[in-house]
Design a protein that fits this description.
The chain is an alpha/beta fold and 250 residues long. The protein is built from eight helices and twelve strands. The strands form three sheets. Strands 3-2-6-1-7 form a five-stranded parallel sheet, with helices on both faces.
Length: 250
């Protein structure tokens, strides 16, 4: 038996948006530790006798603390062999992947990382919003809306002052605060898209502007898990154009 940890990015939700390399890793797994945001159907690629444990974390419903997950990775690898840690999106984009990798290495366990399609870019692309466009946005920020101390990251203040597209993950509970930051920097009319459960059959979207997005979210009942996209590229989406074309000045 050879102990090993493979961190696998499961993609943004659609089970077909996983890489071939990731599928091969699942097929050789002795243990699969999977997140709440990883599509359950991906478990079908793992051997039937593989141990499968849901270690998903959702706000207010933490089934496993991060330290517990780290320890479970090590104990599973030492007891069973190949552990596949299946994480939503990409394991290194706000996924605490490096913490898990580092913990396994401390016990001498060989490690591998298989990247995944991050929801920060994959969800936008799936609804045909380009987060970069040579005539509109030449860069983008990806910012977390949920830091360890519960506050918004200071980088969001800087992002709001740029002309870049800003993508916020895990930020729905802070939406009003996010909108206030953009308004403070004269961005009240900047377009916003919020996509819940992106790339899945439960996908739901709402389009607006910084000045009215909180109201629109309350009306539509869109909630977590969702990706917030702020920037002029959102104006290219037909739903935004339909709602706001009458307000445009020519």
């Amino acid at each position: 038996m050879h102990s090993k940890l493979t961190l696998v990015g499961a993609g943004p939700g659609d089970s077909e948006l996983i890489t071939l390399k990731a599928i091969k890793a699942l097929q050789s797994a002795d243990v699969v530790l999977y997140d709440a945001l990883a599509n359950d159907s991906l478990l079908e690629y793992a051997p039937k006798d593989a141990v499968k444990i849901n270690v998903g974390k959702r706000k207010g419903q933490h089934s496993f603390k991060q330290d517990e997950i780290n320890n479970l990775i090590v104990s599973s690898a030492l007891e069973h062999g190949h552990v596949v840690r299946l994480k939503g999106g990409d394991p290194f984009v706000f996924g605490r992947g490096y913490e898990e990798l580092e913990h396994a290495k401390a016990f001498g366990i060989p490690t591998e990382v298989i990247p995944g399609v991050s929801s920060s870019i994959g969800v936008a692309a799936a609804v045909q919003i380009p987060i970069t466009h040579r005539d509109i946005a030449r860069s983008f920020w990806v910012v977390t809306g949920h830091t360890s101390d519960g506050s918004l990251p200071k980088d969001l203040e800087l992002a709001a002052q740029s002309s870049a597209t800003v993508v916020v993950l895990m930020g729905m509970s802070k939406l009003a605060e996010i909108a206030t930051i953009f308004e403070k920097h004269g961005k009240s009319a900047i377009p916003v898209a919020i996509i819940q459960n992106g790339t899945t059959g439960e996908q739901k979207s709402v389009f607006g502007q910084i000045k009215d997005i909180v109201e629109k979210v309350n009306e539509s009942k869109v909630s977590n898990p969702a990706v917030i996209i702020v920037g002029d590229v959102v104006s290219l989406h037909p739903e935004y154009m339909e709602a706001y074309v009458s307000q445009m000045k020519f």
